[in-house]
Amino acid sequence: MAIDFSVVREAIPVLLEGLRVTALVSAIGIPLGVVIGIVAAYSAQSRSRAVLRSIALGYVELVRNIPYLILVYLSFFGLPKLGVSASAMTVAVGCTAFYTGGYFCEILRAALRSVARGQTHASLSLGMTYWQTQWHIIAPQLLGFLIPPTTSLVIMMFKDSAIFSVMSLPEMTYQSNLLTANTFAYVEVLGTTALIYWLSSVLLAGVGRRLETVVGRRTRHA
């Protein structure tokens, strides 16, 4: 059976509108998750505050061991039972941030361990504070370690936003479900959806490689 390109043409504007919602959720949720991950990573590294370390490590284990779909369902159906009213968009952003934070915490912890501890000790012995050392000595070295895995994380969370279709959030996968229900053109609609996801991921990967090149060049010239 031949592919009906008229369906593809009609589907593209609708899917691009869904892509706008997908991009919005990712653009808000992923940076929030990075902030959460930074706080969790430094809390997990803390030797003097056992409670913070335990909370951070427990958070990472929660993210690592609970399927994303279950987290979304628990958030969407569980929050109203606790008296918290939240829209599908709010839940989507919150879940994206929560899940991204757990994985970015581990990415950052691995990057921190890749920097020789002797540099921290030397900086502290010169009179720098712990946070001055982190900002001026450690952070510039972390970028080269962080960019490749963080790029993969961003792409993963962008694609996994398809899960939010179960909440009727009008993102791209939800729009494709509506289109297939109306047209029964599964190959045309889902194939176009897959192509848009793929092109978006390629674009994100290209940005990541560009950042990696720029950071590598600056590191060599430093």
Defining key terms:
flat; single chain; mainly alpha; 222 residues
Could you characterize the architecture of this molecule?
The chain is 84% helix and 0% strand. With 222 residues, the chain is mainly α. The chain is flat.
* Shape, principal axes of CA atoms: flat
Rg over CA atoms, rounded to whole Å, is: 21 Å
First-last Cα distance: 60 Å
List segments where confidence is low: pLDDT < 50 over at least 5 consecutive residues: none
Backbone structural class? mainly alpha
| Percent in strands | under 5%
Q: Provide a count of the helices.
A: 8
Q: H/E series, N to C?
A: HHHHHHHH
Sequence-ordered SSE layout with sheet pairings:
Layout: H1 5-45, H2 50-65, H3 68-81, H4 88-114, H5 117-125, H6 130-160, H7 172-183, H8 186-221
In short:
With 222 residues, the protein is mainly α. It has helices spanning 5-45, 50-65, 68-81, 88-114, 117-125, 130-160, 172-183, 186-221. Helices cover 84% and strands 0% of the residues.
